[in-house]
Amino acid sequence: PENTLAAFRLGASHGYRMFECDAKLSADGVVFLLHDSELERTSNGHGVAGEQPWHALSQLDAGGWHSRAFAGEPLATLEAVARHCQAHRHWLNIEIKPTPGSELRTGRAVAEAAARLWAEDAAHTPLLTSFQTEALQGAQQTAPLLPRGLLLDTLWEGWRDAAVSLGCVAVVCNHKLWDAATVAQAREAGLRCLSYTVNDAATAQRLLDLGLDGII
Questions:
Q1: From the centroid of its chain, how far is CA 180?
Q2: 136-185: pLDDT as tens digits
Q3: Integer Cα distance of 16 and 206 in angstroms
Q4: Coil, strand or helix: which one is 163?
Q5: What is the rounded distance in angstroms from the CA atom of residue 213 to the CA atom of residue 136?
Q6: Is 189 within 8 Å of 160 (Cβ atoms)?
Q7: Directed axis angle between helix 78-88 and helix 103-117, to 10°?
Q8: Which residues are CB-contacts of 135 (< 8 A; sequence separation ≥ 6)?
Q9: Nearest by Cα to 77 from 148, 149, 26, 143
Q10: Alpha helix locations (H) across the chain?
Q11: Rounded to whole angstroms, how far apart are CA atoms 142 and 47?
């Protein structure tokens, strides 16, 4: 089940050493992992996750929806994920996934937590990414030394300038957006080129042939 420590463990058992997760804020300021704003799809909870305190969220089953084998798997805090990744020397890409309306606050909170949690493990400093420029702005203000990446599902006007102004080291595009021209635009600005979500060999090979730096 996505965004759980069980998923990290399963990935590692297949030899993976780099992981991606989605981070947002509980009502009382705990950074935890969840993709959607609402709880229904990936837990037995209901309603907007960010409107609930961590104590309530921590009691939910975030694995039973996936399969019986993962029933009872809890939501994970970023702190727990940090400990897990550091213990196993894994790399992490944290997507800042704010509850709508909390973009700046979530960006600041995730960056503060990441800077604190990885303070003693600079060799594995996580990459912070987001579709929300305001979230990246909050991260930039709070922990400017942490690397950042701008996520793009469309090439909206000014995307490259925005990435540069936010001090990003990378742009992370929907794989369909990458071609020789867009790679060249990113390279000219000194940006690394990453891609999501790639689940077949032919797409991966096309991206490798374009010289991409990373594939999710």
A1: 26
A2: 999 999 999 999 999 999 999 999 999 999 999 999 999 999 999 999 99
A3: 21
A4: helix
A5: 21
A6: yes
A7: 40
A8: 96, 98, 103, 104, 106, 107, 110
A9: 26
A10: 5-13, 54-57, 78-88, 103-117, 133-142, 159-165, 180-188, 201-210
A11: 30
